[in-house]
Design a protein that fits this description.
Elements (H helix, E strand, L loop, with lengths): L1 H5 L5 H19 L9 H29 L26 H23 L5 H11 L5 H29 L3 H18 L4 H16 L6 H25 L5 H19 L10 H22 L9 H9 L2 H10 L4 H13 L6 H13 L4
Helix pairs in contact: 4-5, 4-9, 5-6, 5-9, 6-8, 6-9, 6-11, 7-8, 10-11, 10-14, 11-12, 12-15, 14-15
Length: about 375
């Protein structure tokens, strides 16, 4: 897991390779152990491979059908925002190295606590520590995902207990409920991670029932382990080479402004909004945690980083209009430059972004 995160520093292909490297271990943590009664070792190896290939085939078939019917847009070429390299000669590890160390510490601690206190159910502590530290975008992001996971798992536990009481022993109904929970979890996940945590808890709890364990006997223990795993993940993110979420946000805003500057550069022959949109998507990934933080800290009278996000996203529509028109207004370019210079002084960033929005919205003509 450490290597799968550490290799991100070597580019997009290395990042994809790291994801593939981590996948088998995640499967081991999430798949319930069901001892084979017959069929031998070959069958035990082949069945998971066949199931995976069937799942891949169904997903590909449904996506192709949805694109042919116009429900899904055609696949577009991936565009990534420019990521700044760490400064040369810095004694502090790069962000990817720090996050890899955090993951290693969190998993080591969760394995230790799990084996010491939860001999038969240790996997949920490890899995939760892995989930809340995955895709780490700063310590605030880890805390935010931990709260959502605990909240979703708590609600999922209550629902799963209710279902277990009324559905226990009916394998066909249980299988249908697992499919429904997975569908709803995937459908609602873009709205909020808590929905995914809720429905995946229901699905995994029902799936464990096929191994002979009763839901009443394992769900409360599982919830306790999820809380412990979340606490371990948060402690690792905040205490071991912490990555400031505000620094991550400022880096991504700077990348967005750089993409916008390139799009408005008269020397650019073909101006497209792709890089700008990709950079905005990177900002959107960290936005929920900051907006939640602002919601729960209304007494703070200072400018909140979430205000930067709102001001930046207010620039999206007028910027898209200008880029698609191929316009390069001088006043707008000056405002972009002023916003980029304001990145060095955070207290001036919000007024600079608001001035950029106004310059694009009130351009001549």
């Amino acid at each position: 897991m450490f290597v799968s995160i550490w290799v991100r520093r070597f580019g997009l292909m290395a990042k994809r390779a790291g994801s593939l490297l981590a996948l088998p271990f995640v499967v081991i943590l999430t798949t319930p152990h069901m001892p084979a009664t017959h069929g031998g070792h070959l069958r035990a190896i082949l069945i998971p491979i066949i199931v995976a290939l069937l799942a891949l085939a169904w997903v590909a078939a449904f996506q192709a059908a949805a694109r042919s019917l116009g429900i899904l847009p055609p696949p577009r070429k991936a565009t990534t925002a420019v990521v700044a390299s760490p400064p040369e000669g810095s004694l502090r590890p790069s962000a990817s190295t720090r996050m890899a160390i955090q993951m290693a510490v969190a998993l080591a601690a969760s394995f230790f606590v799990g084996y010491l206190f939860f001999t038969e159910r240790w996997a949920w502590i490890v899995l939760t520590a892995f989930i809340v530290n995955s895709g780490n975008r700063g310590r605030l992001d880890v805390a935010y995902k931990s709260v959502l996971r605990v909240a979703g798992a708590s609600a999922g536990t209550m629902v799963a207990l209710t279902l277990a009481i009324h559905v226990g022993g009916h394998d066909a109904i249980t299988a249908a409920l697992i499919l429904a929970a997975l569908f709803l979890g995937l459908w609602l996940r873009p709205l909020n991670y808590a929905w995914w945590a809720l429905f995946i808890t229901i699905a995994l709890a029902l799936l464990q029932g096929f191994s002979g364990a009763t839901a009443q006997g394992i769900l409360w223990t599982r919830l306790e382990e999820i809380v412990i795993g979340a606490l371990i993940g948060v402690a690792s993110a905040w205490a071991v080479y912490p990555v400031k979420s505000t620094a991550v946000l400022r880096r991504r805003i700077a990348d967005t402004l750089a993409a916008l500057s390139d799009a408005f550069d008269p020397a650019t022959e073909e101006r497209k909004p792709d890089a700008f949109v990709a950079a905005l998507d990177q900002v959107e990934q960290v936005a929920p945690a900051f907006r939640a933080s602002r919601l729960f800290t209304p007494w703070l009278k200072t400018v909140h980083p979430a205000d930067w996000i709102d001001a930046l996203f207010a620039c999206r529509n007028p910027a898209m209009v200008l880029i698609n028109e191929g316009a390069t207004p001088g006043e707008v370019r000056k405002s972009v430059g002023a916003a980029r210079r304001a990145m060095r002084e955070p207290e001036t960033l919000l007024p600079a972004l608001q001035a950029l929005r106004d310059a694009m919205a009130t351009r001549p003509g």
